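We modelled the chain as a single entity of 199 amino acids. Its sequence is:
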Amino acid sequence: MIKNRIFENCLNELSRLPGVGRKTAGRLALHVLKMKQEDVKRLAESIVYLKEKTVFCSVCGGISETAVCSVCEDRYRVRSQICVVEEPKDIFIIENTGSYRGLYHVLGGKISPLDGIGPDELRIASLIERLENGEVTEVIMALNPDVEGETTSIYISRLLKRFPEISVTKIASGVPIGSNLEHTDEVTLLKALEGRIRL
């Protein structure tokens, strides 16, 4: 068996990324070896720059280059709607449908007792704070349609009963149960957003 500590170290680091197993990490590492030196340098610099210059929006929890993201700052967004998602990447997925013009709120996960994640570990308190100004009339739950996502949606909808003026809805079926928004095509997600139902 051929041993190469440098290659093995790169493979180990790449395989720590979500969704990247050892086989994929191996293919990526081999591809990097075939790249031109300036391309490798540009890739490495862009990763470091991403980490150094990107922050989480202080309002919604999405990815931003500034303290408040471009969505939250956009005065043309529909401020009466907040779409609640699990992770910042879900914002990009919904934005790609081109149909939603409201605001977002990133929870940072979902309730999962087996993983030690309860409501206090999520950004639920900051969601409640955002609703207290009376501007929001609809909260759209757009969590992944698995057991934890459904549990989290139900938990939040019960908390929001103290705001009778706010309609709590969730994206309609069409997104298969147990699946992930990341793997849902834009047309299906668009239909799910349009056909949302009350919780």
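As a brief sanity check on the tokenised model: The helical segments are 5-14, 22-34, 37-53, 70-73, 88-95, 124-131, 147-159, 186-194. The chain has eight helices and seven strands.
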